[in-house]
Design a protein that fits this description.
Layout lengths: L1 H46 L18 H13 L7 H6 L3 H13 L13 H10 L19 H9 L1
Length: 159
Amino acid sequence: MKRIRWIPEMRVSSLLPGAAVLVLLAGGADAADDSVKERVSLCTSCHGERGVSQTENTPSLAGQPDLFLQWQLVFFRSGSRKNEVMQPIAEQLSNEDIHKLGAYFASLPPAAATKPGESSQAESGAKIVAGRSCASCHTDTLPERRGRPARRLSCQSAT
């Protein structure tokens, strides 16, 4: 009978070091989460609470594809995409920060799209598209614009 008691006690005591490691790792994850929360707060000051922008010419980040967001930050960081506000912020981001920010904003629900007929943005967009070669990349099969304002697209196509 002592043998039966000894084996479970041995197993429990052998698990204690592993449990301690898990506790330490969980503490590290909280520190990492705090770092991401700090970075997210930098973003939300312009891109809106929960990634939905209320500022003209500032895109909403919520619901955008993860890799799209990551690449935009990489482009800002490298200077290949120019923006006097974004470039200094992106230069401070590590690859891990960029990965976590992309995943965070991609996980949020996208900005609510405007209802058809609320504005003439669709008509204005159709006129802009008619005079350019937008359809060479942007086809009817691509997902919706995910709440991005029309001005943002016209500004991008002008550059």
